[in-house]
Write a structure and sequence with these properties.
Length: about 450
């Protein structure tokens, strides 16, 4: 007797799956370009979230929304109440679906969609992110989104990292898995995360418990320098990071008449900047520190009474990053003491380092191999690079005995990530959907050893 699992892994079944996804490409392109046109930065994904919720509801998923999946106290880098309110109104004017808005109001823009198959099996979790970058998109004919009429309409917000593609992959996967629900087992959880940029959103979803029941977890990205038709089954390049804003508060005074009465916040911030970049590194692994923004002062004849810095630390491991972060706090405190000013720090983002679990990486490799889509299948991509807050979800799943990985689907890019000319070959979305669907379809063939 042929088992369901062997039928699903048969080449004919995978070929049928592949052909079905190919028929969705036009719809996927339309969806992705709509999201790109109305790009929304972290915690402001109001239009995006309402559209995602509407589509998932139409498909028949059970939804958890907003405060159900985001712990308010764990959010980082949240815009002001005034900005949140302004952006909600902007989203409604741009086509946000009003009936869903109360769930996301105030910046609670996360969604978890669940499919219970009714058959015994594990919980499989997928994570895609939804937010855009704080960046102005290029507006000229050399840039395809502008030339074809789908460049961002929102100033200072652009999908320059592919998250519009990720969200579209998540929705395409949702449609396919619902069509195939009679051939699935266990439970499917689709996690649509806000505020990945700046590593601000995942921690709050982990704190809300969204991955506590997940046995197999996969986070997704496209591009990142991986060539087209290549797949990385277990990206291992992410550094732990901490991002903080520092505000120094001194005393203003006349710079010519009474400078001794002032307390110079600008000098404290400048001293801190030099001290931070002079910090010694750690022998246990790569580390980074950067002051990306320094703003201070009000006029040339006024002793500056305020200064603000935007700082980030990174480390190859959580321990290395924590060492650099703690040293940074000492430098900041010392600079404030030197110039007799007050200071306040605000945590704006954080991520961990995380190593994919080897059995799950090998399983992903097997599914990719059977699909026959890729010129090269890479198990591990190593070497310190950026940071990603899906690592919070990976580490939580692993700590509870589950399997986790971070998969990258290679694609041709018009420019690098976080660039005003960024765009990608939309065919990569079909490769992503096919591969991720195969993980669920063939889960009964997973072997830990």
């Amino acid at each position: 007797m042929v088992t369901e699992a062997s039928e699903l892994s048969a080449p004919s079944s995978l070929q049928a799956l592949s052909k079905r996804v190919d028929t969705l490409l036009t719809d996927l392109q339309t969806r992705r370009r709509d999201l790109h046109k109305y790009a929304e930065s972290g915690w402001l994904e109001f239009r995006t979230s309402t559209i995602v919720a509407e589509r998932l509801s139409e498909l028949g998923y059970s939804l958890q929304l907003g405060r159900e999946v985001i712990d308010a106290d764990s959010r980082m880098g949240l815009p002001s109440a005034e900005v949140l309110q302004q952006q909600e109104q902007r989203a409604l004017e741009q086509g946000a679906i009003a009936r869903w808005m109360p769930h996301f109001s105030g910046g609670f823009t996360g969604i978890v969609a669940t499919l219970e198959t009714g058959r015994p099996g594990p919980v499989i979790g997928y994570r895609v992110d939804m937010d855009a970058l704080d960046l102005n998109e290029l507006q000229n004919d050399d840039h395809r989104p502008y030339r074809e009429g789908f460049s961002s309409l929102n100033g200072g917000m652009m999908h320059a990292c592919g998250h519009d593609g990720h969200t579209t992959i998540g929705l395409g996967l949702a449609q396919l898995l619902m069509e195939l629900r009679d051939r699935l087992c266990g439970t499917i959880k689709l996690i649509f995360q806000p505020a990945e940029e700046g590593t601000r959103g995942a921690k709050s979803m982990v704190a809300a418990g969204v991955v506590d029941d997940v046995d197999f977890f996969t986070a997704v990205h496209i591009g990142t320098g991986v060539p087209a038709n290549h797949i990385v089954c277990g990206n291992d390049t992410f550094m732990a990071t901490t991002k903080l804003d520092v505000v120094f508060t001194g005393v203003a005074a006349h710079a010519g008449g009474n400078p001794e009465q002032g307390r110079n916040a600008l000098l404290a911030a400048a001293q801190a900047t030099l001290g931070l970049h002079a910090l010694p590194r750690h022998s246990a692994g790569s580390s980074r520190i950067n002051v990306g923004v320094l703003q201070a002062g009000t006029g040339r004849n006024v002793v500056p009474s305020s200064a603000m810095m935007k700082v980030e630390t990174r480390g190859a491991t959580n321990e290395v990053n924590e060492f650099i972060y703690q040293q940074a706090l000492k430098v900041i405190s010392g600079a404030a003491e030197m110039y007799q000013v007050q200071f306040e720090t605000r945590l704006m983002g954080a991520a961990q380092s995380s190593t994919p679990t080897e059995p799950w990486v090998k399983y992903i490799h097997r599914q990719a191999e059977q699909l026959g889509l890729f010129e090269e299948i890479i198990d591990r991509q190593e070497g310190a690079a950026g940071s990603e807050d899906a690592t919070y979800m990976m580490e939580r799943v692993k700590s509870l005995g589950g399997q986790a990985s971070y998969v990258i689907f290679g694609t041709d890019l018009s420019a690098g990530h976080h660039n005003e000319k960024f765009d990608f070959d939309e065919k990569v979305m079909t490769q992503g959907i096919k591969t991720l669907a195969a993980l669920a379809l063939n889960i009964n063939s997973f072997k830990e050893h």
